[in-house]
Design goal:
129 residues, alpha+beta, five-stranded antiparallel β-sheet, 4 helices, 34% helix, MmcQ/YjbR family DNA-binding protein, YjbR, DNA-binding
Amino acid sequence: MREEIFQYVKKKYKVEPDYPFSTAPTYPVLRHKDNRKWFALIMDISREKLGLEGSEHVDIMNVKLGDSMLVDMIVRQPGYFYGYHITRSNWISILLDGTVPFEEICQWIDESYAVTASGKKGKKRKSQE
């Protein structure tokens, strides 16, 4: 699903994945061009780290939401978790194994992009909706 996500953000936001971690070269970051803030991070981790059965690795994507109460509701659904390896409360991790439909994943990418945008961009996006 990584490639589909990369195609989506390239088409919609003209963003290419960035690989900033020398210790984790397979972890792409998606970030704004202007403020360099991340709006998504994809990682492959073992299922057991998410509290799931099995030790095989799965891809997850961390995205930021605008409301911590929304986070608390979302993580009750299959395929969603509190942000893995991040202490901020507005981040969630989404399992990228087909549990969460691609269209839904795109919705959360869009939310994260808006929440992490610089002030001018965020206001512009909201006025277009």
